[in-house]
Amino acid sequence: MAKIISYLRLKNMTMLQSFIALNCVYLVAVLTAIVFEFEWADRIRRRFADHPSGNDWVLTAQIIAMLLTIGVGLVLMASLFYKLKLKKPLEILMSASEKISANDLGFQVSYDSRDEMSDLCRAFEKMRSQLESNFKALWRSAEERNQISAIFAHDLRTPLSIMKGYFEFINSYLPQKKISEEKLLDTIKTMESHILRMERYVEAMSSIQKLDDIPINKQEIEIDTLIALLDDGASRIADLRGKTYDSCRNADSTSLFVDLDLVMQVFENMIANGVRYAFSQVKVDYLVRNGFFSITVTDDGPGFSNEGLLKAVLPFYRGEAPEANEHHGLGLYTSKTLCEKHQGGLQVANSSRGGGKVTVSFLCRVDK
């Protein structure tokens, strides 16, 4: 029996094929047994033909033997089918479900077969992999939010301390009239500027919290149209700062499938950063290859410091530019987050000529 089953190679069969094959084996085995039982009953019947009590009981014994043969055969075939086709994959799936319930996703679901249970195991592995990916993304998001909250609390501490100092100053000297009206007005004006600064800071913090809620709305657009829109906006930003602007492209397609508003928002952040640090020129390179649309913005400024290369994409990092206090340091962080929502990324580096270089990428559908 084992050799017959091995010959049939049930692991390479579907559930239906295996069921049919085992039933064929079952029928052959049962019919063979029944044939032998008929011969046995015939011999017994002849042997007790002249017996005083007769041989009528032989028919009853034969029917019982046939029913037992059929029943035992069914049990054996069902057990064999379960053992060969169901037991191992069910054990694998049960073990996997217990690990997932315990929040343990560091395993793989693998079952070497070609039947439906193998397909089910592969689907389960795909689900586990997606759960693991989502869990890691959620963990990173929570870590980033904790980091942002820590930075937010740290950066608010300074203006709050200043405000507290001014309040104590006014509380101490105003009742005693030891402060002039001019000094009092200057102090109140300074306090107002710090309040406005904290309001802007809170608004910036609120905008970060809303990034995860931004939907991705992709649309098909001609590469020439997209680059024309980007170049027009970049040249205007550069002109306002008195910088020159140049661009070039290398595309293996004529159209893209991207979120236009998201791409333009990221691009404008990159250009604004580039012209802020550039001495005189900003250059942009567009690249469409292997399903990704990449934009590289290079300036001729001092480039990123070693600290900047590590922290440029962190929220509220302002660098060492003279204008650093005029913005909240959210441009590259926002751009990085939006790129990742578009299944791309952002990298910062220094160009071979010494200036800063920022590259972003977006997953797109390319129609050649």
TrEMBL record:
CDD domains: HAMP (cd06225), HisKA (cd00082). SUPFAM superfamilies: ATPase domain of HSP90 chaperone/DNA topoisomerase II/histidine kinase, HAMP domain-like, Homodimeric domain of signal transducing histidine kinase. This is histidine kinase. Its EC number is 2.7.13.3. Keywords: ATP-binding, Cell membrane, Kinase, Membrane, Nucleotide-binding, Phosphoprotein, Transferase, Transmembrane, Transmembrane helix, Two-component regulatory system. It comes from the Bacteria. Residues 151-366 form the Histidine kinase domain. Residues 84-136 form the HAMP domain. It catalyses: ATP + protein L-histidine = ADP + protein N-phospho-L-histidine. It is found in: Cell membrane. It holds the Pfam family HATPase_c. It is a multi-pass membrane protein. GO terms for molecular function: kinase activity. It comes from Paenibacillus eucommiae. The chain crosses the membrane at residues 20-38, 58-82. Gene3D superfamilies: 1.10.287.130, 6.10.340.10, Histidine kinase-like ATPase, C-terminal domain.
